[in-house]
Amino acid sequence: MKLGRRNFLKLAGAAAAGAAATACSAAPPAQAPSSAPGTSLPPSTSATPPSGPPDWAALREKVSLLLPGDSGYDNAKRVFNPAFDDLKPAAIAKCAKPEDVQAAVEAAARRVPIAARGGGHSYAGYSVPDGGLMIDLGGMSSVDVQGDRVVIGAGAKLKDVYAILGGAGRCLPAGSCPSVGIAGLTLGGGIGVLARKYGLTCDHLVSAQVVTADGVLRTASADSEPELFWALRGGGGGNFGVVTSFTFRTDPSPSVVSVFSLNFPAGSANDVLAEWQRWLPEAPPELWANVVLSGGSPVGARVSGCHVGDSASLGRELDKLTGKVRGTRTVKQLDYLGAMKYFSGSESRQSFVASSRILGEVTDPAKLTSILDGRRGMDLLVDGLGGAVADIAPDATAFWHRKAIGSVQIYSRADTRNRSVATDSVAEVVTGLGLGGGYVNYIDPALPDWMTAYYGDNAARLKKVAKTYDPEKVFGFAQAVTPA
């Protein structure tokens, strides 16, 4: 079964990437001199910012560089959402190795904005710095399975990660959109369809290679740069440095994953959401599910998900939901790779507006359904959390929303004709929901008090990490974590 982008979003609540990225060769790159584990980053630049634009000609001698007017420039700057096609980087550095990233950072630091681009799915277009330097990591996309570990380059996309891991009999919980980059997904946490069983993507991170603001390539792990390592697990894409590769711990891939879809009759959205909120937290962690509310009159409802196990055991769990609210049921029993492909959608670009909130506790369903009444083309996708996600303390990594029932994505189609209306409508819904929090991988420039919404009580610690590793905001952007 192949799903279009919108149907895919309804099915799986795709995890989208943030502004940052990752990349590298099949094996971990040789590490440049690094600061001692746990020590602060020494000041690397003078108090006086350098004057004038970067020397693009000099950088071009070291890195493949595209400037406006060059062949391939217009295509290289394009990201998933066409809404950002008008943004125009001053230059695009197409990096193939960590040294390329180092050269790019050193050339542009404090002269123009710098942003890394992995999958290009930043909901706010932050990976396309208007008038700045885009560090394109698409050439650093290797996936190297090494026993129970995998080293993944920052430019790798989920479709390739899944294909190679599945072929090796290994599993890494991640998102479902095939063209999302592993980098932004991981750096924002990494909610996916196997999260309740295996945890977030960032929970499997063992180490990362990172080019920091001073141009140094560092290893961030539990034993080396531990505060940076903590921040990279949920602290958001685009912050603290440019990751060039990740090393993850993997699990044996499950032999059987059963997928399902439940459709419910018109007028049952309140009952469906009420029962889903009761049912999922009580379900075994092997079960993951979302509930999708589709705007209109009346509001539509469906539940989709997967179960690490056979269809018979899945059926018994679904009976606990559909015994209270009747719906039509579709179930398929697949292998791990087949299940990941089932949730994959089209890689075609799509214009949309989106935001998010967090379902922290059981909520009156009418608060969510009433705000969608009559809003055709808008969906609320509530992706389940709990299970292994909640087994980790909120302050153990930068991902704060460990104890939530689920994340809520507000998604609306938008093109050049109705984008302003769609943006206003999404903002109205976000306000009307009455929910707090937000998922940084569904980053929203209009989200009030976004620092607290994304990071909760972890915000203060993240600011300290920024002060250590990027005190002069070399990687600053509109919603960057800035020094305390």
Automatic annotation (TrEMBL):
Residues 27-49 have a biased composition (Low complexity). InterPro entries: BBE, FAD-bd_PCMH, FAD-bd_PCMH-like_sf, FAD-bd_PCMH_sub1, FAD-bd_PCMH_sub2, FAD-linked_Oxidoreductase, Oxid_FAD_bind_N, TAT_signal. Residues 1-26 form the signal peptide. GO terms for molecular function: FAD binding; oxidoreductase activity. Residues 27-55 are annotated as: Disordered. It comes from the Bacteria. PROSITE patterns: FAD_PCMH (PS51387), PROKAR_LIPOPROTEIN (PS51257), TAT (PS51318). Gene3D superfamilies: 3.30.465.10, 3.40.462.20, Uridine Diphospho-n-acetylenolpyruvylglucosamine Reductase, domain 2 (3.30.43.10). Residues 85-253 form the FAD-binding PCMH-type domain. Its cofactor is FAD. Keywords: FAD, Flavoprotein, Oxidoreductase, Signal. NCBIfam families: TAT_signal_seq (TIGR01409). Belongs to the oxygen-dependent FAD-linked oxidoreductase family. This is FAD-binding dehydrogenase. It comes from Amycolatopsis coloradensis.
